[in-house]
Amino acid sequence: MSELIDRVPKQIFLAGQWRDAADGSRFGVQDPGNERQLCEVADTQDADVREAIEAAVAAQDEWAATAPRERGEILRRAWQLMTDRAEDTARLMTLEMGKSIEESKAEVTYAAEFFRWFSEEAVRVDGRYGRNPAGAGRMLVSKHPVGPCVLITPWNFPLAMGTRKLGPAIAAGCTMIVKPAQLTPLSMLNLAALLKEAGLPDGVLSVLPTTSASRVVSPALEDPRIRKMSFTGSTEVGRKLVEQCAPNLQRMSMELGGNAPFLVFEDVSLDDAVTGAVTAKMRNNGESCVAANRFHVHSSIADEFVRRLTEEMSALKVGHGTEDGVKVGPLISADQRDKVIELVDDALARGARATTGGKPLDGNGFFYAPTVLTDVPPDARILREEVFGPVAPVTTFDTEDEAVRLADDTEFGLVAYLFTRDLDRAIRVGERLSTGMVGINTGLVSNAAAPFGGVKQSGFGREGGNEGIEEYLDVKYMALALKE
Ligand SMILES: O=CCCC(=O)O
């Protein structure tokens, strides 16, 4: 294991070169499974940020002028390298983030897929040519890289949330400054090394690990030459970043918090619904913005659904992510576990009942038992706040209208899941729900080929799919007079 950590460069990746922080300062990275320090990483300082901004600006025009095929080939090689090294990359991720090896491997595949997808999109940026309505001239519409970008990535998917931003930025021809999460910088530093190996030219990318997000992000957003910011994280932080982008009107993509409802109608196959529920809840330890946050089940099948879900959840092996057979690793930090404890205790105090779990696990590491809560009252905080942990609160409904009302009774609008065998109802309800994404008879919507993103307080912009690259492109229209 320590060999894996030793291989990761623990410096700043500044415009293609590895460097210590300007003043030599470093910060510790912890293993959440045993609260031990794994290593130290360079802590970016003001002077480093200034250099990264200048480098991103200086490299922009030349990078934008490279052939799309060339950028696509870099992404394709990066996909291949990630795929070849999936095992080690997954182990590294488990060490710094905690999730099981199985989950980390799934993330590596998912992350690599964004590179493959955007390697194919790089050569498909289109435009149009047409007569103007008066017939007297022509209209030429083309797309161009938006310019240097600041990309801010979270700790929960330290690789995939990076490739989902870097992939389209590279495909479009934008230079990038990446600020990885303080808790999980290693996966991103590893990715920077891999991209260099895949042929990404020096100057195009800087990765700035830091203990102070504002030290990196604020000067970049205050600089009008930086033209785009993409953020995955909490709604609270997202709002502040929107304010920071206002003076220079940088383009923004905001992938923010969720509070996903999971609707189970009375006609389902309970086997399928419970399998989907476990996936939607427990992927990534429940530490995901698309994790099902609350289960609304038709009252005629609720008892049986709870019984089966309890059986499945209590059978999940909890432990250090690197151990064999472990399905649920530690949560990322003491703070994150405290939040889970607080929300579950609040629900229990208001009358909910835990049919399994309901408490943290003793010993080292930030472990919390997979939990099912039933009889959850409408005023329980857990129905309104994103729990980001392995807890499934269940409530009931009697009619389709009530199900939709409950599902939409939230400020968030990222994803909803619904299970029914009635196709008409699936489409009808799916279209009514106020979310950017809907999973129909599946607990997993994430896919590099699909537009991922939310509405309401879950943000705006789409990542992945054909839509993903558009976030990194500006549209130019040229009016052409024509003497006919
Ligand atoms: O946590 C946010 C993203 C999760 C995903 O892409 O599946």
UniProtKB/TrEMBL annotation:
Q: Where is the active site?
A: E255
Could you tell me the Gene Ontology terms of the biological process aspect for this record?
gamma-aminobutyric acid catabolic process
InterPro entries per the UniProt record, alphabetical = Ald_DH/histidinol_DH, Ald_DH_C, Ald_DH_CS_GLU, Ald_DH_N, Aldehyde_DH_dom, Aldehyde_DH_Superfamily
Q: Which domain of life is it from?
A: Bacteria
Q: Which keywords describe this protein according to UniProt?
A: Oxidoreductase
CDD domains in the record: ALDH_F5_SSADH_GabD
Boundaries of each Aldehyde dehydrogenase domain copy? 18-477
Gene Ontology MF: a single term: succinate-semialdehyde dehydrogenase (NAD+) activity
Family named by the database record: Belongs to the aldehyde dehydrogenase family.
Q: What is this protein called?
A: NAD-dependent succinate-semialdehyde dehydrogenase
Q: Which organism is it from?
A: Amycolatopsis acidiphila
